Amino acid sequence: MKLWSLEQIARFGIMLLFVVVVRSLSEYFRLKYFQDGPVALGVVEPLIAGSLIAVLCTWAAVIFYFLRRYRTVIAISAGTIVLLLAYKIYTIR
């Protein structure tokens, strides 16, 4: 018995990418309201780059979803998560 089809997994991947985009963009507001003083551009710059990565990968995943390339969507979704984790580790150092 097949639990999830490739299309359903691809939909879940796209949904997860949209959550990542919202989370990345909302980080600015967390810093704005919970940090003492104004938010410096140097603090926000990595967040903007991470958000741009997430948005571009989400756009690519949606395009491939409409082309019915579900395995590619799944690969883009998983690759984006790994890429953003690596980017976060890189920017922390």
Quick tags:
84% helix; mainly alpha; 93 residues
Q: Would you give an account of this structure?
A:
- The structure is a single chain.
- The protein has helices at 6-34, 41-66, 70-92.
- With 93 residues, it is mainly alpha-helical.
- The protein has one domain (6-92).
- Helix 1 (6-34) runs antiparallel to helix 2 and helix 2 packs antiparallel against helix 3.
- The chain is elongated.
- The termini are far apart.
Concise structural overview:
The chain is mostly helical and 93 residues long. It has helices spanning 6-34, 41-66, 70-92. It is elongated and about 55 Å long.
Topology:
Layout: H1 6-34, H2 41-66, H3 70-92
Helix pairs in contact: 1-2, 1-3, 2-3
User: How many individual domains?
Assistant: 1
Low-confidence stretches: none
Q: How far apart lie the N and C ends?
A: 46 Å
Secondary-structure content class: mainly alpha
The H/E string reads HHH
**Percent of residues in beta strands?**
under 5%
- Compute the CA-based radius of gyration: 16 Å
